[in-house]
Automatic annotation (TrEMBL):
The lineage of its organism: Eukaryota, Metazoa, Spiralia, Lophotrochozoa, Mollusca. InterPro entries: Mutator_transp_dom. It comes from Elysia crispata. Pfam families: Mutator. It comes from the Eukaryota. Residues 33-159 form the Mutator-like transposase domain. This is Mutator-like transposase domain-containing protein.
Length: 168
């Protein structure tokens, strides 16, 4: 499947941000006490403007496991992105964008969203999770990693389909 053209990607991203903020404010903002900080289970995902790890623009989302709503997002612009009006906010390789986006979202989760992301449902890639544990954004409050059952099942399925040795 071909990647989206940059102009199309940017239009979709801009609309997603506007819609996300509106829905987030309505659904979650009304039920939350101003002083309360909510511990929640989340999943993270990200994508790049272009396919592969050569893109210099990435976007990451924090998704509430219970509602499926994107509750936070961040766009990372790598150093050689020279679009007029855009400032770089990321130094590193394209493959490190996911880690930086996760780090940024965790650092502002309490101040911006009054939430602590204490359970992460993961696809098995632990680079971002390890970075979050290193920075310890919530002090002594730990962050637990749960594996996505679908990914665990795929791994088990692979290991049971072809035995490593044959019995005679």
């Amino acid at each position: 499947m071909p990647a989206l053209r940059p102009k199309t990607f940017n239009k979709i991203a801009e609309r997603l941000f506007k819609e996300q903020d509106g829905v987030y404010s309505i659904v979650l903002g009304e039920i939350q006490d101003e002083e309360m900080v909510l511990d929640m289970a989340i999943s993270c995902d990200g994508t790049w403007l272009t396919t592969g790890h050569q893109s210099h623009i990435g976007i990451g989302f924090v998704i509430d496991v219970l509602t499926g709503l994107a509750i936070d997002s961040h766009v990372a612009l790598a150093p050689d992105h020279k679009e007029e009006g855009c400032a770089k906010n990321f130094d590193g390789t394209a493959s490190m964008i996911d880690i930086r986006v996760a780090e940024f979202d965790w650092e502002r989760s309490v101040d911006r969203n009054k939430r602590r992301y204490v359970i992460v449902v993961s696809d098995g890639d632990s680079k971002a999770y390890n970075k979050i544990c290193d920075i310890a954004p919530y002090g002594k409050t730990g962050i637990e990693k749960d594996e996505c059952l679908n990914h665990v099942g795929k791994g088990l399925g692979d290991s049971t389909e072809e035995p490593s040795c044959r019995l005679h």
